[in-house]
Each structure stands twice: as C-alpha cells, then as structure tokens.
Prior knowledge:
Elements: E1 5-11, E2 17-24, E3 32-37, E4 49-53, E5 56-57, H1 64-70, E6 79-85
Amino acid sequence: xxxxxxxxxxxxxxxxxxxxxxxxxxxxxxxxxxxxxxxxxxxxxxxxxxxxxxxxxxxxxxxxxxxxxxxxxxxxxxxxxxxxxxxxxxxxxxxxxxxxxx
Length: 102
C-alpha cells in the first residue's frame, strides 16, 4: 500500500463483520473491497504503519468495534480510517543528491 490510500468502512454493527474499501487518493487504481470481523486488532506487520480514526492514532491492542463504541458511532453511518505509512529514516550520505546549506 502507498501513503495516498484511504480505508473506508461502509457498514458497521459491533456484532457483525464490516466491509472495508481501500481507495487510492488519486484513483489511479481500482478500489479494493474486503470484509473483516469487527474483533480484528490493529497489529502492524511493519512498525512504520499507523491507523488513524477520528483524528487519533490507534494503538495495536485496540479492537475496531470497541473504538467505534467509545466514539458513539451510529450504526449504518460511513466510517473513515486512515492508514498512515511513514518512510523509514535514512541519513543523508556525502554522495547523495541533497543540497546542503553552508
């Protein structure tokens, strides 16, 4: 996934599965839709991924249905989760093309 993709939850009921749509910001690829159980946790395979909901970064041990319940989500309303992927830190080398100020 790239950092210009959004994840959109279309139907949410705490006791049911939810359908997720991964939509690329510039629509250069088709939407990817899949269904997942609401008890999925937000465990990252890569340490530089963060899932954001309602302006807050979620912790790995949080369960999606609990997050929605805590934020008083109304069943049937559209929900937006944002997957943020940061680039790993790389130090500039003397041979790199980065301009430096003296």
